[in-house]
Amino acid sequence: PIIIYGDYDADGQTSTALLMRVFRKLSANPQVVGYYLPDRLHEGYGLHKEALHQLAEITSLIITVDCGISSLEEVEYANELGIDIIITDHHEPGSTLPSALAILNPKQQNCPYPHKDLAGVGVACKLVQGMGLSTTEWKRYLDIVALGTVADLVPLRGENRLLVYHGLKQMEKTDNLGIAALLEVSNVDQPSAGHLGFRLGPRLNAVGRLGDPTRGVRLLLTEKAEEAKKLAQELNAENSERQDLEQNVLQAAEKVVETYDMHNRPALVVWGENWHQGVVGIVASRLVEKFYLPTVVISLRDGQGVASARSIEGLDLYETLTKCAPLLAQYGGHPMAAGLSLPEENLREFQRTFETLCAESLSPEDYVQKLYLDGTIKLDELTFDLIEDLACLEPYGFSNPSPLMQTQVSVLRTRRVGDGGKHLKLFARDHSCQEIEGIGFGLGGERALLEKHAEDIDLAFVPDLHEWNNKKKVQLLIRAWKPRSKTSNYVYKWMVDNYPWDLTDAHFHSKAIDSVVALSIRQPNFSLLDLRGIWNKYEHFIEKHNLTEKTLILVNTPAKALEVCRQLRIQVPSGENAIAFEHELLSPEERSQFNEMQPYWLVSTGFELHASKKWSSIWLWDPPLNSANYSMWTNLLEDGGELVLAFGPKELREAQINLAQIYPDRKTLARIYSLLKQIGDEVSIDLARERLNQVELVRSLSIASGVFFELGLWKITQDSILFLPSPAQKLDLNESVLYNSITQIRKQSLNYLKHCLERGFFQNESEREN
Fold first, then answer.
1. Per-residue CA distances from 733 to 87, 710, 739, 741 (Å)
2. How far apart are CA 141 and CA 18, in angstroms?
3. Residue 686 CB neighbours (<10 A)
4. Is residue 467, in this structure, part of any structural domain at all?
5. How confident is the model at residue 85 (pLDDT cuts 50, 70, 90)?
6. I want to staple 742 with a disulfide (CB 3.0 to 4.6 A). Which of 50, 450, 536, 663 is the partner?
């Protein structure tokens, strides 16, 4: 019989299956053709003398697929055995070619064939096309060709792109029971190049890496539905096992890199005893993704190392390994990926040589991973029509990537999704105020950093059409993000550098409750717009005002000023230099910067604003805490200005809770005393704050300390609370001047707040003041 000699990876399996199907179709006796795939773990890649010796007993003709071009000794040995060898391969030839009967390889010197990037299955397909089949007949096998082409990561351009395009069309109506079963276990309904590369291909590769690769070929050849289903399930299980092995080896390799601080070297060469040879290639790819360095991952066993290597842009891996050839037992591959073996005693020398060659070949700029953008776009330009137009560029894959676009957005909200929060889902908005959803696979760990810069970032993404529950929507497949450069002023510092904020108790204190404003001040005439309780007032505010209208937003506390300012800057990405905050806790340097700024939208507590500067529009985001507070705020309006009541039940409740925390009542004071006394007679300030923070009473500590000091219950040192002996008689809190003062303040403010949502209340306030 004729023997097809293949390889154990997806390209080799599909190449073998392709020729087997065609030869069986053309032969009057299908039994005169057979195949042989070497075992990855025991034989390794390519032709082997032991296998040729066995095959010589049954054949005089071997056709290689996806291998053979570097097997000079093995082909010579086959000739001695009386076996003719026809080589079909796509790997890089050496300077001397094997003495085969015929060689089909577009990369051999002086070969005029224009498409040099065919996969092994693509080269096998050229052989099929030359065997007399009609176009209709050989196109039936393009589903197999497409699968192997995409799985082997060859460039999807030129003829490869055509093969995959038509192969996907054939796959939609495939009569290959094995491919149909593989689609089913991979949960693929409408196959795409991405599905071939990330779902079907890995399942074929898994059996080649871990076990018997002939199962992949049998799957692609079977004419029995039950056998196809059984084999597909075996491949599926093997792929799950491969993923577990991959994770174990990856963690071990990463530990080696970190232990020896290897990420600062010009290349990574890592090895470990008994690392599974079937996953070292994937692990090398993962390390390149993480560290962006040329990487060789070596599995050691019985004094021999078997390795896979992956490169970065700018380094020809095959050429580099050729310069290391004296240290290697075998090597082969492509500019971006290769395999090799070497004796253990050569490891250190190979590591030094490989690192030196990489350092000589690569510049510092080569070590910076680059994303090549295809254009910039606004979110409102991402339409269904555009995505359908972009689909004309498919199939996407290596060297024909999906269109990568860039847009400037702010991030409204985020959450981690997937197993262990590995991925990041976000909702973004751009200058057009269009809101859109995005997903960043593998970016879950960047959530905190992204939220810090949420007000203005650049996203690199692929536009995608997402369908769920029969509903379609445009989403962003996020590849990367980066913060945009900013003006270094105090607003940006607080909005980005200091976020998330570590605020003091003073940031939650409202100056209004201990300030007295003369009610005799002449109040301006103004119109009143009552929006109390309005739903989503951020959107309403943005719709009502543009960034050229001077508008003052008044809130109760410095903490609230920070919060509202940040949300506005996120909701309006173009507001970077137009939206600011101000409050009484600004440092002298920050106050100086503020005085030089000209923001259009200002969020403020209002107490440090110059009364001479009037505003045409003021929004009361929070309710005033008393009449004096209301008087002071309205005094900032110009005559004929507009006062907008924008608070509602939520803000009212926030103010009430904040008052209760800042100015604790009798019950709260007793609880604080009891909680801290349980710790001991001396409690550090830090421990006291930590304990009270657990029960949301930390803001009450300042007032409690003053009250208990006045009553002689404790004293405060620089960093501790010292409990004093308990008095013989029960103390009366009313003996504390501070307690009486805060009780009066709290009572008056809570009583005022009680009426803040009543209809007509502020009209009456304004009439009283005028």
1. 98, 10, 7, 11
2. 7
3. 10
4. yes
5. very high
6. 663
